[in-house]
Amino acid sequence: MGINWLGVILAVVAGMIVAFLWYQTGPIASAWEKLTGVTPERIKPVRARSMLQLFITVIIMALGLAVAIGLAAEATGSTSVWAALLVGLVMWVAFSASTLVQHNAFEMKPAKLTIINTGYQLVLFLVMALVLGLLNERV
C-alpha cells in the first residue's frame, strides 16, 4: 500500500480552507466567538502558534486518513470515493466526535459549542476524505 502524497498535500490545503471558512466567517464563526470568548484581538498574541498547531494537526489527519483509506482499499478492493467518505465518517465518529463530546461534557461546555466544533470536525474529515478518495480513485 502506498500513500498518494499529492492527495495528502491537497487534503491539507482543503483542511486549512475548511478551518478558515468555519471559524473566520459567517454565523457559525460568530456563534463560536460568543461561546468561547475568542476574538481576533484576543487570539492575536498566540495566532502564529495556533496556526502552526492547526497546520501540524491537519497534516497528521491527512496522513491518518490516507493510510486508513489505503488500508480499506486494500481490504475491500474498492478505491471508490464513497469508500473513502465512509472511512472519513467512521474515523470522525470513532476518534473525533466521541472524544470531543466526552471532553465538552466533563468541562461543562455549552451543547451549542459542542455541535459547532463536532460539525467542523465532521466537515473537515469528509472534505479531506473526499480529496483523498478522488485522487485514490484515479490511481
Shape: globular
Largest sheet: none
Helix content: over 70%
Total individual domains: 1
Structural class: mainly alpha
Order of helices and strands: HHHHHH
Write down the oligomeric state.
Answer: single chain
- Mean pLDDT value: 93
- State the distance separating the first and last CA atoms: 12 Å
Strand content: under 5%
Overall radius of gyration: 16 Å
Contiguous low-pLDDT stretches (5 residues minimum) are none
Number of strand elements: 0
How many individual helices? 6
Task: Name the features.
0% strand, 139 residues
Quick overview of this protein structure:
The protein is mainly alpha-helical and 139 residues long. 86% of the residues lie in helices and 0% in strands.
Structural summary, described in words:
This protein is an all-alpha fold and 139 residues long. The chain has helices at 5-24, 26-36, 40-43, 47-76, 81-106, 111-138. α1 crosses α4 (47-76) and α4 packs across α6. It is globular.
